[in-house]
Structure formats: C-alpha cells, structure tokens
Amino acid sequence: MERIYEDEFQDVLELKEEKELKILVSPHTYGNTRLILKEEGEYRIELAPMHSTSIHLFIQNKAQGKVRLHLLGDIQENADVKLGLLDLEDTDFELYESFDLKAPGARIELYTAQLCQDQKKKGDILVRHSSPYTYGYMHNFAVLKDGANYEMVANGTIDKGAREAASHQETRVLTVGKEHATKVIPLLMIDENDVKASHALTIGEPDENQLYYLESRGLSKEMALGLLSVGYFMPTIEMIQEEEIREKTREEMERKVGVYGH
Amino acid sequence: MPELVVKDLHVRVDDKEILKGVDLVIKDGERHALMGPNGNGKSTLLAAIMGNPKFTVTQGEITYDGKDVLAMEVDERSRLGIFLGMQYPSEIPGVTNSDFLRTAINARSEKPISLFKFIKEMDRAIKELEMKPDLAHRFLNDGFSGGEKKRNEIVQMMLLKPTLSMLDEIDSGLDVDALRIVADAIQKCQEETNMGMIIVSHYARFLDYLKPTHAHVLIDGKIVISGGVELVDKIDKEGYDWIEKEYHVKANKEEENTRPISLGSCGAKRRGF
Fold first, then answer.
1. Which among A212, A227, A260 has the least Cβ separation from residue B74?
2. Has residue B259 got a pLDDT over 90?
3. Of A178, A230, B106, B149, which sits with the fewest C-beta atoms within 10 Å of its C-beta?
4. What pLDDT was estimated at residue B263?
5. Which domain holds residue A38?
6. Closest by CA position to A63, among listed A23, A144, A119, A24
7. Which among B89, B93, B160 has CB closest to A231?
8. pLDDT surpassing 70 at residue B265
9. Within chain A, which residues score under 70 in pLDDT?
10. Segment B35-81, tens digit of pLDDT
11. Per-residue confidence (pLDDT) for residue B255, from 0 to 100
C-alpha cells in the first residue's frame, strides 16, 4: 500500500492483511496519520518525508498475536517527523526502527510507550545523523508487570561532518510487578566534534514515599501503581489528534494499568 | 460521631523508640494543637495514625469510629475519613493534580464524581487558597514552591472532605498573607464538615488564627501536659523549659547533621596529561 500526501492531511489507516505501507509526504505538506495494526505478523512501514514537510504519525498495536514492526525512512531537508508507538497488548512485540536524517534541518522525535506483562517486548532503534544541523530525540517508556521481558537498544549515530547535530535519548522503565527482566542499551556513536548528545536511563520500582503519599489519599496499591504508570503513556497518547479517540485510548490505558482498581 | 482514641501508643523507627506511651482522644469538631520541641514525636504520632510503613507500632491501640485502625492499610485509613496534611509532600512528576484528585475522590465513593462537579469543587478550592488556575493541569507538587505544596495539601483536604484531619506543620513555608489564607480555608472546611483536627505547628500566629479547643505538649515520646488555648499562649511566651523543670522530663535535642560536607569538585586544572 502506498499513501501520497499533499498540502494538508489527516488520515486514519488500519493494516490487516496488507502489511507493507509506504508514506510519501510531498514538499510543503503537513498533517497527521493514525495507524492501527490489527493483526499479528510482520509489518514494514516506510516514511519518505520530502523537504519542508511535517508529519505526526501515531501507531497503535491492537493485534492479538505477535507483531514484528519495521519502521524506516530518510528524512529530507527541513522535514519534521514525530512518530509515536503505543502498545498495550498482552502479546510479543518486536520493533525495528531506522531513520536517517539526510539533509540539514531534518528532525525526528520518536516515542514508544509499552505495557508489558508475561510477554517479550523488544526494540532496536537507530537514528542516524548523516547531515549537519539535524535533530533526533528518542523517548522510550515502558511499564513492566509480572513476568515481563523488555529489551531496548537505542542508538544515536552522528556521522563525520554532521556538525551541530543534536542526538538525544531517554529510556524510562517502571517495574511494578514481579519476576521481570529488563535490558536497556543506550548508544551514542559520535564521529564529529561539534555536536550535542545526551542519554538518560532509569529502571526501577516506584518510589516508596510516592506510593505512601498516594495511598494516604485513599488509593489502593494497585490504583497508586496505575496512576504512577499513567505518566509513562501520556506523551504518546497525546499525539492522537481526535479528542474522542484520545480519551477512549486514555481510558483503555488507565484500565489496563489499574487506575480504576479491580 | 467518629472519635479517634489513641491508647498507650509506642512506636519505633528502626531500633529507636520514639513514642513511649501516648494517650489521646479527638472528637468531631475539636481542634487539638500538638506542640513540643522538634524531634520529640509529633510527626511520628501523626504518621503512625496514618500508617506510614516506616513507623512500627510496638504497643498500644488506635481506634477511629470504634474501628481498629492498626489493622488497616494506609488507603483504608484514608477511606475511613483520616487525612494527613504532610510536612514534606511528595513530588510526583507525570501525574497531574486533577487525575490524582479525581482518582482519590472516586476511590472513596461508589459512583464516580461527574467531571462538572469535580471542576466546580476544584475551582472553588483553588480560588479559596488563591492558587494559580493551572493547578489542575500541573504535575502533583512537581516544581512547586514550599508554600504551594502546603496550599495544595489543603486543596486536597477540601476535596476529600475527611472527618479527621491531621496537619503536620502545614504552616511552614507560608508567608504572613498565605498563613491567613490557609487558616481561613481550614476554618471554613471544618465549619462545613465538623471534622476533628490535630494541628502540629510552631507558630503562635497560626494557632491564633485557628483557635484550638485543646492543646498538648509532647516531650520525649509522651504527652506531658494538656490544656486549652492558654497553654499555647504560655508556651509562646515562655518556651518549653518550664515544662521540663516542672514535669521532670528532658526533651530530645535533634541530632546535628554530622555527615561530611562536600566542597564540590576541585577547580584546579590538571597538568601533565
């Protein structure tokens, strides 16, 4: 399947049997796409934003079986990409992202928000700065319940000559269950001097003082843990443009993390 | 009429006994000022009533409305009507005040509060406490000044409508004007709910505003003297020394911080590399 956007767009797509999608954003075009993955299987989504474009792509996994998702693309001059992935399903998920900031002014901001319980969620993300004056930021959030297995490799690579590139990343993992495993590898591969780069990583249980504070206001432990999890998902959910869908998705997330108790 | 009864309460933190037999009864509508030098057990008493897991009750009883409080989890105590306005409220980034408060209100009622009613009540509390209108959308206590955190505790109290409210140095960090605003809001809340109150404060001005019906002095883990508002006035004028002499007790002095102090990194440049 191929989508070619021009001027201004707002699109909703569901991928089922068709598992390959190419999105071409014509020059001087901007808009939003919401994409639902409905079925298990291996997906390949290629983004081709031309110069002077802006695209916000929100992807939600709704498949009831294992998904392997490949996201890739070359970002051209002054193109701005914001891409969010929300995965609340009790299924295995593998994510492979590879984006190349090809020309000056190219920007990409990537979000993942995953709820894990008894499954393996694996991510391998690369943002390559092959041109000067480019910007990349990877935000990875995960909440781990009982038996979860989470793995994330986030790689910001700055090539020689990509001066004044900025490569940032953060990975935040909240563990609220038992017997879970986490492996997070933040990588910065820098071959240029005049750059900005940073990484931040936290993995851990909720702060006991925060839990006590919430419980002292009448929240059960499950509700308190759920509420502390909400902040891990909201930056991604807020990418949904349609208010009604956004609120429904938020409710679904709050229910799954336990904000409403049993 | 719910009544808090504390009998012979002994509490430990780690291996140190902080409370050594406290007895206290608080009824609806009463305002009890709890006073005493720092480090003698005031905050410990409130934390033990609330159920802070860092504090271990080794002896004694706490009942509220005839129910065994010590057998309850922290959240159950809250839903029973007990509220603790904390001295150091936690900062919780990622959780907005409105999400938190709606969840807390819904946790104590069978039917979820309507959005309209919630916004109305929240707006009212924000106005009364003269806080910034964006409070609902800010993360819980995150980046708040000391005064804002304390006012936010009172906003929570107003929305949760407890039947017993314990305020632990809620006046610290407040300037003179804010002190008046907070005291007025507390008074109004009590007039509406008739809640019982325990107020820990070192400031006579705050207690002047709140006009306690009872006062107690806690020294070395025990309430050594109780009285009325005249006790607050006397302590304001004369301090605690006379109590130590008259009642043959010795106040614990807070331990000085003996941790080594870092002078930061050395500013000298490294040479020879």
1. A212
2. no
3. A178
4. 55
5. 2-203
6. A119
7. B93
8. no
9. 262
10. 999 999 999 999 999 999 999 999 999 999 999 999 999 999 999 99
11. 59
Q: Is B52 on the interface with A (CB under 8 A)?
A: yes
Q: Which residue of A has its CA nearest to B51?
A: A216
Q: Where along chain B do its domains lie?
A: 3-247
> Where residue B202 falls among pLDDT bands split at 50, 70, 90?
confident
Spell out the SS3 assignment of A65-108. Answer: CCEEEEEEEEECCCCEEEEEEEECCCCCEEEEEEEEECCCCCEE
**Is A208 inside a domain boundary?**
no
Burial class of residue B67, CB neighbours in 10 A (0-12, 13-18, 19+): middle
Domain assignment of residue A127, yes or no:
yes
Q: Please report whether residue A65 resides in a domain.
A: yes
CB contact under 8 A, A218 and B156: no
Contacts of A143 in chain B (CB under 8 A): none
CA dihedral (B238, B239, B240, B241) in degrees, to 10, reads -60
Average pLDDT, chain B: 90
Residue A254 lies in a domain: no
**Token representation of residue B160:** 């949760």
The DSSP element (H or E) to which A59 belongs, if any, is strand A54-61
**Do the chains contact at A208 and B92, CB–CB below 8 Å?**
no
Q: How far is CA B212 from CA B29, B217, B222, B229, in A?
A: 10, 13, 20, 6
**Contact: B86, A216; criterion CB under 8 Å:** yes
Question: A150 or B108: which carries more pLDDT confidence?
Answer: A150
The pLDDT value recorded for residue A16 is 85
- Could you tell me the two tokens for A143? 């909440």
Class of domain B3-247 as given by CATH: alpha beta
pLDDT in the model for residue B271: 44
Cα Rg of chain B, angstroms: 20
Cβ contact (<8 Å) for B107 and A232? no
CB pair distance less than 8 Å for A213 and B78: no
Polymer length in residues for chain B: 273
Number of domains forming the structure of chain A: 1
Residues of A with CB under 8 A from a CB of B: 207-210, 212-221, 223-224, 227-228, 230-232, 234, 259-261
Looking at residue B270, its pLDDT comes to 45
**B115 touches A at CB < 8 Å:** no
- Residue B264 predicted with pLDDT over 60: no
**Taking CB atoms and an 8 Å limit, are B160 and A218 in contact across chains?**
yes
Provide ipTM, 2 decimals.
Answer: 0.91
